[in-house]
Amino acid sequence: MMAHYLLTALQWTCVILGIGGVITLHEWGHFIVAKLCRVRVERFSIGFGPALCRWRRGETEYWISWVPLGGYVKMTGENPDGQDSDDPRAFHMQSASRRAAIALAGITMNLLTAFALFTVAFQIGASFPGPEIGGVEEPSPAWAAGLRAGDVIRSIGGVPVVGFADIAETIAHNDTEDGILIEFERQGRLTPDGARLLLEEGVWNDAGDLLRWRAGAPWTPPLGIAPGDEVTGGEVRSRLELAAASADGTEFAFRGRLPIVPERNETLGFQTIGIAATSDLRVAKLISENGSAPALEAGILPADRIVAVDGTALSSWEEFTEYVRARPGTTIRIDLERGGEKRTVEAIPRPHHSWRIGVELGGPSSEIAHVRPGSLADRIGLRRGDRFVESPLGSGDPDGTPVEARARWQAPEPALLIQRVGGEARVTLPSADGSGPTPPWEDVIEGILWAPTVSGVAAGGAAEQAGLQPGDRIERAWIGSEENPVPVRLWSDIPAIVSASAGENLRLEVTRGSGRATVEMHARLDERNPTGALGILPADRLVTQRIANPWRAFLFGVRRCWIEIQKIPRFLGRLVDRSERAIDVKNLAGPIAIAQVASRFADWGVGSFIYFFGFVSVQLAVLNLLPIPVLDGGHLLYIALEKIKGGRLSDRAQAIGQYIGLALLLPLMALVFYNDIARLISRLLGGS
Questions:
Q1: Share of the chain residues as helix, strand and coil, in percent rounded to the nearest 5
Q2: 209 φ, ψ to 5°?
Q3: Which 8-state DSSP code applies to residue 421?
Q4: Alpha-carbon span 322 to 324, nearest angstrom
Q5: Helix, strand, or coil here: 67?
Q6: CA dist 527 → 328, 352, 355, 356 (Å)
Q7: Is the pLDDT assigned to residue 206 strictly greater than 70?
Q8: How far apart are CA 684 and CA 450, in angstroms?
Q9: Helix, strand, or coil here: 35?
Q10: CA–CA separation, 123 vs 607, rounded Å?
Q11: Is 37 left (phi over 0), alpha (psi -120 to 50) or beta?
Q12: Is it true that the peptide bond before 629 is cis, omega within 30 degrees of 0?
């Protein structure tokens, strides 16, 4: 444990020195070119604040200051109040070209630093959260388009993807109304008997023939398609092609391209399509509850990789979570990897009791909230607002979560009776290929999201005692004394709201018939069905980009540098945008957030840590180009105005410019510090 804290302290020391080093290199660029132009440099300081130590060499005093976050260069005649000097070596006495060269030197040094850091990072190997989708929000643009967990995004907007951050940033910066083109890859395979293809989608050709289907439907290999062939059709919303197949014909990779129009997420303050990165089997963080953390007590530490549990090898975090949840209060043996060494620990998952109110989904009043375009539910004619006359899910689940759909449709052409505005309707479930067996009912459910309409209430439960009735549609919820209601859009919202209430007063507003009603209740802990928890948060699954050839690594670094440069004006443009594509100012980050992000990159490895400082160096270069007095871009603006005016600007005009620059930057600095502190407090209170 002590070694872990020492490593964390060393990591943060490197973060502070790294950020300070990037800024110091910027100032060193100014210093070197000023010396080459024979401008008198009075002081060159590494760091800010009072001098920790100082010495003089020639005409310049060198400082190492107490605050190691940057540095500065003090030149004679640089500021308006010092331009009354007639020293021929003063900054303001130099030609426009020399002053421009000095102003651009810091920016140039940062770009050269970025090129060098990116080259080294990719030669060592830089790791990032990979472009594989770990989860898809429902509903969301990604869900509606048919993206699935496990899909790997290869490019977005025509730009190859290195990590998941590229995806999120490109989507947030997108300004096209027609959407952004996403290229993805999806893996499939045949089962051992060679008869079925495990894939999430059905694909038809132009003649309407089924070319492939998800698990449970036949796959016919003699279709004559080969890697590179395109599979298109009117039923398919995206353009798909078979990208690769294994030699034995059992594994396939399909590549798709489709435009997705992002939606603004008000909570995050920018555009998203509703996808999350994939979790790895590495431990990111330990969470204690009432001072107890089973994982910590067992000796598990952040950065440990979980290999197996009770002798069973694991392939995903979901497998591990499911295993732990099923064994509350039971000792389990966990095999770990730490620093290249293997070790085994024993842990006892803490019993976790969920809050319940006793409502059910699955009765005849189950109502559809969304139907995914192109899904089987969409193709058979199901629509938003449809209600099932017969239960679509079988028996209800009193725990408040939708039960798993049951494949109980055995007739060759089973008909489904639904209630629709205007009367009853009947839809037919087609067979998978027009003549074979009917696809499982799960295939229909997969394309449906359920409205928060109560199908039943458990006898003696909190919902029944409060007067909640079958057919009630839950619209809004108030927890405790909160004044702002939580909107309830889907049935899947209910468990999270009930859990957040934690036994406090829960008030629900429901639509009942043609009117509205309000019910109040207190959720109860389900003592009979606990689940296990260890208090572990997973890390993102990382991919490593390593380029051994130095020249290729340099070229790749230059390309990444250009990509990062392009992102900044797009980000700034979205900040001042007044449309739905705007980015909220709460996403601006200051030194605290930058240091936290740097620490996270350090967790991913030395190459990633170096890459981060290359990224910071690019940011510093571009932002300093902004035409704001007190920044390098402000000096260039003055020089441009001098050329237009045909003479030097007056000291008063330059002083006014400095005040304007400070008036712009000081509130911005206050805002980013406020954002940093607000995020820090939120993280501490939220425990994440």
A1: 35, 30, 35
A2: -80, 135
A3: T
A4: 6
A5: strand
A6: 12, 9, 9, 10
A7: no
A8: 35
A9: helix
A10: 8
A11: alpha
A12: no
Among 373, 317, 316, which residue's Cα sits nearest to residue 140?
373
The arithmetic mean of pLDDT across residues 557-584, rounded, is: 78
DSSP classification of residue 94: S
**Is the separation of the CB atoms in 535 and 295 below 8 Å?**
yes
What is the amino acid identity at position 463?
A: A
Cα–chain center distance at 282: 18
Q: CA separation (Å) from 27 to 45, 590, 631?
A: 9, 20, 12
Find tokens 């927890």 and name the residue. 479
- Give the H/E segment covering residue 136: strand 133-136
Q: 152 has which bridge partners?
A: 132, 185
Give, in degrees to the nearest 5, the angle at Cα 258 between 257 and 263.
Answer: 140
Please give the helix or strand (H or E) that residue 450 lies within, else none.
strand 448-450
> What is the Cα–Cα distance from 121 to 609, expressed in whole angstroms?
8
- Give φ, ψ of 566 to 5 degrees: -65, -30
Residue among 139, 538, 122, 481 at smallest CA distance from 317: 538
How many helices (H) and strands (E) in the chain? 15, 37
* Of 93 and 206, more confident: 93
Q: Report which secondary-structure segment, H or E, holds 51.
A: strand 41-57
Count how many residues are written for the chain.
Answer: 688
Which tokens belong to 104?
A: 């651009």
Q: Can you tell me the distance from the alpha carbon of 653 to that of 685, in angstroms, rounded to the nearest whole number?
A: 48
* Average pLDDT of span 184-212: 46
pLDDT of residue 333: 93
Average pLDDT over residues 95-99: 84
Amino acid present at 250: T
- pLDDT category at 6 given cuts 50, 70, 90 is low
Of 30, 103, 160, 118, the closest CA to residue 618 belongs to 118
How far is residue 275's CA from residue 319's CA, in Å, rounded to a whole number? 20
Gap between the Cα atoms of 362 and 391, Å rounded: 6
Which residue in the block uniquely carries the two structure tokens 């990590």? 163
Reported as a single tens digit per residue, the pLDDT across 35-90 is 888 888 888 888 778 888 888 888 888 888 887 767 788 888 776 665 556 778 88
Q: Could you list the active site residues?
A: 27
β-bridge partners, 540: 279
For residue 377, the SS3 value is helix
